[in-house]
């Protein structure tokens, strides 16, 4: 039984390492793609580029975090957060592709457009559906950060990865929350200005 338990833990750790490596690869490809898009004239907000650099760093730190009691304490929370984040990314993709489809159907966008520039009043409905999921994810990042900071204060904490991950999640939380609030405010004000003109 002891041997099968050790094999079980070994394979979980291998799968965790593979997952974290895939996250590093994913965020690296995003940063490369965004750099190409920016050099071709795209107006990607600076925070999102920085966000992907921080996420690459965070995934790399998670990849190097050795297996132990603290890693196991945080593992389920980390995997649950990533599962939720994948769900939110699917919702964002669905919202973005729906907006692009509608704009293409109205003849306001070219078939090769990848993102939506500008904002129209009908987009509020989809965005208002998406915002609670985004904010929940942002506050989950804060929760991850607080959890890791508390773990760092434990006397048995010897891994530097705990503090680095906690700091990374805090940076992600603050940047995501600020940027999301700023974008929503700007879109709201632009929508108000357009409605006054009509």
UniProtKB/TrEMBL annotation:
One Gene Ontology cellular component annotation held by this UniProt entry: nuclear inner membrane
Coiled coil: none
Pfam families documented for this protein: TMEM120A-B
Listed transmembrane segments: 12-32, 44-63, 122-140, 160-185
Main localization, broad class: membrane
Record's bilayer topology term: Multi-pass membrane protein
Listed GO biological process terms: fat cell differentiation
Compartments it resides in: Cell membrane; Endoplasmic reticulum; Nucleus inner membrane
Keywords: Cell membrane, Endoplasmic reticulum, Membrane, Nucleus, Transmembrane, Transmembrane helix
UniProt keyword annotation of Ubl conjugation present: no
InterPro entries referenced in this protein's UniProt entry, alphabetically: TMEM120A/B
Family: Belongs to the TMEM120 family.
Name of the protein: Transmembrane protein 120A
Organism placement in taxonomy: Eukaryota, Metazoa, Chordata, Craniata, Vertebrata
């Amino acid at each position: 039984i002891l041997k099968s338990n050790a094999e079980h833990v070994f394979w979980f750790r291998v799968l965790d390492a593979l997952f974290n490596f895939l996250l590093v690869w994913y965020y690296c490809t995003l940063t490369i793609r965004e750099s190409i898009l920016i050099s071709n004239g795209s107006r990607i907000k600076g925070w999102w580029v920085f966000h992907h650099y921080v996420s690459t760093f965070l995934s790399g730190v998670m990849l190097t975090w050795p297996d132990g009691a603290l890693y196991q304490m945080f593992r389920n929370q980390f995997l649950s957060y990533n599962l939720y984040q994948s769900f939110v990314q699917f919702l964002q993709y669905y919202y973005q592709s729906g907006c692009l489809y509608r704009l293409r159907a109205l003849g306001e966008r070219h078939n090769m457009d990848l993102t939506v520039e500008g904002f129209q009043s009908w987009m509020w409905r989809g965005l208002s559906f998406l915002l609670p999921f985004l904010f929940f994810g942002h506050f989950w990042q804060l929760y991850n950060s607080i959890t890791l900071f508390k773990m760092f204060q434990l006397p048995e904490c010897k891994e530097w990865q705990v503090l680095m991950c906690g700091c990374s999640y805090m940076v992600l939380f603050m940047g995501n929350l600020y940027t999301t609030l700023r974008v929503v405010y700007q879109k709201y004000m632009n929508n108000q200005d357009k409605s006054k003109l009509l």
